[in-house]
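User: Batch of two.

Assistant: Item 1 of 2:
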Amino acid sequence: MGPPAAGRPDDVAAAEPELMAHGYTHLTSRLGDVVTKQYRGPEAAARCAREATVLAAVGGVLPVPPVIAAGPAWLQTGLAPGVHGQDLIAAGLAGPVLAACGRMLRRIHQLPVPPELSRGASSPGAVLVHGDYGPNNVLLDARASDVTAVLDWEWAHAGDPVEDLAWCEFILRLHHPGEVWALDAFYDLYRARPAWPDLHHAIVDRCRSMLELCQRWEPVGIGVASWTERLATVKTWTQ
């Protein structure tokens, strides 16, 4: 059974949900001020539960959407305010967007790891890793001065901060190659910049894991072809 119709009594004719932009893997729709995310692929239920756990843990501390309801593989949250980070980059605000991303990631990595995620952490220095961090998963005010919401926590875990730093760099290099200069603002506001070999290794490793996920999900699907190409591309990247 799928998620219930959001924001309306059962005796009211259903409004048509609006599919939201920037939903690459899952079905994300909006009905009024309620956003419904339907997870797909391997371990969908586990990823849904993880995101609900993190949102409950960091809500009130970080700007994240409030959880309304959750099911086996769907999550309903309140609609978060703001403009998508990649839209603002396209509008010429790459520098402010990346600066705000760096400042917010520093806050995330300073938070305690929720107990549900810290079990089995391999390193005593592990931090709360978002797992898919970058302008693809943040909303900001219209001037890109502040992050108004951090979205999509399904890959969150206890880990090395370089994972999030590397993935933000990956998102910018892949989708906005003409704006790579803005990474200086990102690392300046984060207040640390790992060595390129460490960043590159983390990027390659994550791309490889995404390829493996797609191979388990749809072995002959478009995802496998896409991540095979991306993995080959990032292996050629140099600082």
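Item 2 of 2:
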Amino acid sequence: MPEQLWFTELLNRLFGPMAASLLSHIGIKVANPAAPINNIVAMELLVTVLLIAFFFLVRMRLSPDNPGALQHIAEMAEEFISGQAHEIIGHDYRPHVAYLMTVGFFILFCNLLGLVPGFESPTASPAVPLGCAITTFVYYNFYGIRRHGAHYIKQFMGPVLGLSPVMFAIEVISHLARILSLTVRLYANMFAGDMVTIAFFSLVPILVPVAFLGLHLFVSLVQTFIFVVLTMVYVGLAVSEEH
């Protein structure tokens, strides 16, 4: 069993019995009833709390005349996401900015959390990138069906009736492969970044690891950007009239 982080231990001390009881009531077997909350879940909860606090502070300090630093950060992120979404999705991009901002900030905070001593990056575990990928898969297919109705499913079958079963199977596999692609790309890069940083901290604990912390920061930003852009591409393909 992996060693508990101090935050995980705190959550288990405060909410462990409640979480174990809830999981047992819904039929989920807990390996360790004394510590039902693992490090990954604890880090996700921490990221959620940080995001709520961040957006709450931005909302409370919102000012058109005297914007603060947090407002500038939020506005720059919104302008960047909106600009990219407008280029990739098209003129109907606006309804999707909220989801893109949410998944982008969540992944970014998860990635960066590993830079803080005593914490881990939740995205360095395959379950978290998989959850984000499945959510994106459901999201863009939902909007594709909402936009085109039955025609969205029909276009999976291709223009030739005789090849419809084969084309449908290929299209379904292709869309499912997007989940694997999003998951593996994010997980593999964050896991590798964590392992490299930990290895160099254990070998040379002074000065040298700083460069790898900078590399970890760069990888965190790039992987967030790639995930969000790919989400835009999938949404754009699902809702476009040509598709």
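DSSP finds eight helices and no strands in the chain.
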